[in-house]
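Thread: zinc ion complex, take 2
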Amino acid sequence: MDDALTAITKYLVIKRLAGDTITILAVKEYLVDNLSPSTIGHKYRISKFRVRGYVQRVMDKAKNHRVAAAIVKRVFPYVIDIDPIILRVSGKYLCLLCNQQLRHEQVEHHIRRKHKDLVQTLVSQIVSGVRKEVR
Ligand SMILES: [Zn+2]
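Output below.
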């Protein structure tokens, strides 16, 4: 479960830093709250196929549905507590840490590359927090 825990935490942390909270909510509501992809899609105005895509990316990091659901359930409260570093200003994206303007498709790459240390720190904190709870 350890590799899956770290991989899923990292995926969700980057989404949250990017301000992409809908992806996190969609994954959590599907895996933890057992809502259907069409219900979730309707709620956030995205297609059910997109919901399935987000969930699939999380599932790929875990062995099965049960493990993925258990991890997302524990990691979610920590991730949702993080403040995004990307601010959307009239269709453009601004990094609040380095003031760089980005296009949507550059956002995650920017976070992974320029704010790698922040991502690593947050992931380590969450993973050790979750492990303490499990013990
Ligand atoms: Zn930046």
